[in-house]
Structures are given as structure tokens and as C-alpha cells.
Amino acid sequence: MRVFILVWFGQLVSLLGSGITRFSLGIWVYQETGSVTQFSLISLFAMLPSILLSPLAGVFVDRWDRRWTMIFSDSGAGLSTLTMGLLILAGRFEVWHIYLAVAVSSTFNAFQLPAYAATTTLLVPKQHLGRASGMVQTAEATSHLLSPILAGVLVVTIQIQGVILIDFLTFVFAAIALLLARFPKPKITVEAQVGKGLLLHEAIYGWTYISTRPGLLGLLMFFATSNFLIGVVSVLFTPLVLSFTSATVLGTMFSLSGIGMLLGSLVMSAWGGIKHRIHSVLGFTLLNGLCILLGGLQPSVPVFFVAAFIYFFGVAVINSSDRAIWQSKVPLAVQGRVFAMRTMLAWASVPLAYLMAGPLADRVFEPLLAVGGPLAGSIGRIIGVGKGYGIALLFVAIGILTILMVVGGYLYLPLRLLENQLPDAIINEASPTEENER
């Protein structure tokens, strides 16, 4: 655990720096262009390369040394950030440079994320995987909470080039932490040779492993569906809240949601979760569906505050539990390929959600509950009529779909009994005294 904590702390610092830069670049693009479309493209470029390249990246994660893979990824992302800083100093910085730099960083993240997940399994004893997943989630929650606050201060005081320099230094810090860490050397196992061969065959093996295990496949499909619904909610949450209150209250709400996520992560770090983690996944997803449903039925500031806090507390528990399930059920030798395929398929639905959310709200649901709209005299009597209430109705629909998804997941026995039916992989299969110097 000591080695893991060293690696984790380096990644925490790097994640915080990246969060500050991402938020600052968003502010810069919106101030420079005034375009919501150009602003939203940052999120798209930050996600697509990582999703598309994940299967191939997973092959190399299994082939290469995990520590040097993470160093390579952090260094590549850091150089991409440094290039942006140099362009700003040279006075040649343009918006398309941000898209390119963010896409390059996303490419390196395709290697870093599965390598980090597999490294956790390598370093952490099986009984502490839940706590380790909570710590990883704590780092993400800390970035979610502190990045907007620090970015707002730093952009004013040291400007965008200073922020980018800090981000580059955080990548250097993470790389140094990895260089100081001493990883155990994984033993040669039968699983390490499975699926080996052509690059394409190895990339496909991640899907073969998942698809031949109904419980894992069910869990993957559950998250792919959930991520689509969450993607719609995340895009429309800001317009929904701003329809009923001010931007200041919205900022406070984001901070409160970050606190909820951080608290949930800390609970998981200290506790590790219940024995059957799938129950945490299903139970808190059900709770989150109820939060979305409540926010749509009673769109008001107090309800938003309570729902946002509970929702993000649940997100921390769900993500930590899901991560620990995969780490305990997938052999270490193939985790790079399996985790990469899992990342691609689970998150592939999110860009679709981003594309559909706006038209669904503007062209379908908002007109339904406009003054004199088709549903103004029926559902409008319950929810309300006017600007923002159509989005609230869409939240009601998503909340109901989330609840139905959880019921379906619970009734699907391979998913509900996943941890009983699928035996744990051998977790502590590394020699604690040998350093991996490959």
C-alpha cells in the first residue's frame, strides 16, 4: 500500500493540475469566441481519441511495463501542455491549438487509464481493493471540487500561461513519483499468454474475455446505458438550474456536488464497501435515479441542492465499487486489454448523449411544456409550465428509465450474482521483492 500511496499522490497532483487547466481553457475559449459550440468541442476532443484508441492501447499496456507506460503517458500529456504554453508566449495561440492539444492528451490517457487501473491491482492486496478504488475516486473528487475554484483565482493572477506551466509541473511531479516507486514483478501466468498474437487479435481479446462472462458483460452494458442517461443529465443540468436561479447559485451547487463526491470517496477509502459490491452499484444507481426524478418533478433550488449532494455521493460509491469488481475478477496479465475495451464500450454512448441532449430539450420536451404546449394542461399542472420545465420533464423520463434499468439489472441473474458465480482472479500474483526493470 505504501508504494500505491506514492503513485496515487503523484496522480492526484497531476489530476488537479489537469482539472485547473481544462477549466481555465474553457473560460478562455468562451471569452475569446463567445461560442457555446466551440466551448463544448473541448469536451468532445478530450473524450473521443481515448475512447477510439482504448482497445489498441490496452494491448500495449499488457505488453509493456505498467510503470513505464504511466511515465510515458504522463510525459506525453505534459509535453502537449507545455507546447500550448510556448505557443501562448510566442503570441501564436489559437483555439484549434487547444483542440489538438486536448486530443493529444486524450490519446495518452488511453494508455494511462488502463495502466493505472492494472497497476492498482498489482500493488494493492485483494482485501484492500475497495479502499484503493475509493482513494482513486477521492483524487477525482478533489479535482472536481478544487479545480474550478483554483482556476478562477489563477487565471486572474497568473493568466492562462501560468496555469499551463503549473499543469506541466504537476505532470513532472507525477512522473518523478513513478520513478521513485518500486513495482513488484508480475509472475508469468497462463493468462499472460492467452490471446497473444497479432495486434488486432490481442485488441479483440478484451471483448472476447468480457463477452464470454455473462456477469461482466451485463455489468458493462449496465454502465453503457447508465452513462448515456448520465450524459444527457450532465449536459442539461446547467440549463435546467439556470432556468430557476442564478449563475452564483449554480456555482455553489457544483461545489456542493463536489463535496458530496469527495465525502463518498473518503467513506469508500476508509471502509472499502460491502462484501457484495454489485449491491452497492445497483442500490446507489437506484438512489441516483430517484434524485433525477425528484429534481424533475420539483424543480427548485432546495431540491437541486439536496439531490446534487446525494447524487454525487452515490457516484463515488458506484464508481469505486465497479472498479473493485473488475480488478478482482480479471487476471492481472490481461487487465490492460480488458479494462481498455471496457472503457471504450462503457463510454462510447456519452458522445451520442451529448449530441442528442440539446435537440431533445429544444425541439421535443421544451415545446411540450411551453405556455399553451400540448402537455401544459396535464403534466404541466404537476411539474409546471414555461422555460426550463420541458428539461425538467426530460429529467423525469431519465429518472424513470434509470429506475427501470436498475430493476432489469437486478432481475438479470448473471449480473446480480456476478460476484458469486465468477471466481476471483489471482490478485497477489507478484513477487514483493523483485523490481520490474523491463
The CATH class of the largest domain is identified as Mainly Alpha
User: Quick check: average pLDDT?
Assistant: 82
> Which spans have pLDDT < 50 for at least 5 consecutive residues?
429-438
What is the spatial order of strands in the main beta sheet?
Answer: 1-2
End-to-end gap: 22 Å
Q: Please report the total strand number as a whole number.
A: 2
CATH architecture of the largest domain: Up-down Bundle
Kindly report the CATH topology of the largest domain: Growth Hormone, Chain: A
Percentage of residues in helical conformation: over 70%
Compact overview of the structure:
The chain is built from 18 helices and two strands.
Written description of the protein model:
The chain folds into two domains: 1-179, Growth Hormone, Chain: A, CATH 1.20.1250.20; 197-426, Up-down Bundle (Growth Hormone, Chain: A). It is globular, with a radius of gyration of 22 Å. The protein has a two-stranded antiparallel sheet with strand order 1-2. It contains 18 helices and two strands. It has helices at 2-33, 36-63, 66-89, 95-123, 129-157, 159-180, 190-193, 199-211, 214-242, 247-271, 277-297, 301-329, 335-347, 349-368, 380-383, 389-411, 413-416, 418-421, and strands at residues 184-186, 430-435.
Looking at this protein, list some descriptive labels.
18 helices; transport; mainly alpha; Growth Hormone, Chain: A; MFS_trans_sf; 81% helix; globular; MFS; 2 domains; transmembrane transporter activity; disordered C terminus; single chain; MFS_dom; 438 residues; two-stranded antiparallel ribbon
